[in-house]
Specification:
By secondary structure, the protein is of the alpha/beta class. It has a single domain, classed as Rossmann fold (3-Layer(aba) Sandwich), CATH 3.40.50.1820. The chain is built from nine helices and 14 strands. The strands form four sheets. An eight-stranded mixed sheet has the order 1-2-4-3-7-8-13-14, with helices on both faces. Strand 3, helix 2 and strand 4 form a beta-alpha-beta unit. The longest helix is centred in the first third of the chain and has 24 residues. One of its GO terms (molecular function) is hydrolase activity. Keywords: Hydrolase, Signal.
Amino acid sequence: MKNIKHSLYIVLLSAMVSILLPACATTPLTSTAGQLLLKEQGSFAIGGTVVKAPGIFDPIKHGAFNPANQSSAGQTLHGDHAYVFYQIPQNPRKLPLVFWHGYGQSAKTWETTPDGREGFQNIFLRRQFPVYLIDQPRRGRAGRSTKPMSISAAPDEQLWFGIFRLGVGKDFFPGVQFSKEPEAVNQFYRQMVPDTGPIDMEANTNAVSALFNKIGQGILVTHSHSGGQGWRTAIKNSNIKAIASYEPGSGFVFPEGQVPNAIEYLGGRLQAAGVPMAEFMQLTKIPIIIYYGDYIPNQPTQNPGQEQWRASLAMAKLWTDAVNKHGGDVTLIHLPDIGIKGNTHFPMSDLNNIEVADHLSDFLKDKNLD
């Protein structure tokens, strides 16, 4: 009887394995347990430069970590590179998404949201896109700069609360798609990081271009300050097959001789730049989609946090028309106009970020980029 029970157990176990193994083999990236199945992940530095001080390094005299004996003579500094973290899912799609953060931010922009939900990193990983997350040179985990800079410790968070269009002061906009939980606000403020050196657009675009040289063809996803840098990187590197830009704030480039007048706004002016026509035409060869969120006024206002985005959206419309006039394929989406309301300057981490991601997925599908 004991042997019969043992044999029956083996038969049942074998039957269960035979059922489960095919199911595991065809399990999609997202399982019922919410698991992510990865083929590969890792990180690396890309781009940058090496500075060497004149003289000769003396390992005896200068080797001890003693401030009295320290000398730069003959030593090197590897800096101004970007840091890249990547994840490649099982059965990946053909083109990866490369995510580039905005001003005062790092790759954290695309990771877990301030209120603890999945950001675009995981959302698109679950949709089987390889994802690459950048910390640009002199920011975050790429903080080794070859140029010195003083870092301020001045309190400024209510200023950014307004500029990032969560609301005014400490008061949220009505209907805003951002968690009002104190811990979410705490996490949001703590994701901000300082520059460790002067912002260098040439170093930044060279590093991201080097990334596309390394990984090959892909789709660049930018946010805010990286928007303008994204245009210039695409001019440099034809491996960028499309751009999705969330709220580009500056850096719009037009053909030389066709640069529009600066747009004045409360507290500043937004000026575009001119590039040779041959360079500008590179931007007409790829599909581009631009997104802006909510709470952007149509007319001048006394709120400087909203004013600069009024100027940015107005310039983006001029830029869209200019690229398309020369045969390009730019789509400009103001989210409230298509019924997606309440978004801040961070649509990728707002409460409705799945809906925002769905729109990008539809765009990629329409352009045969998925």
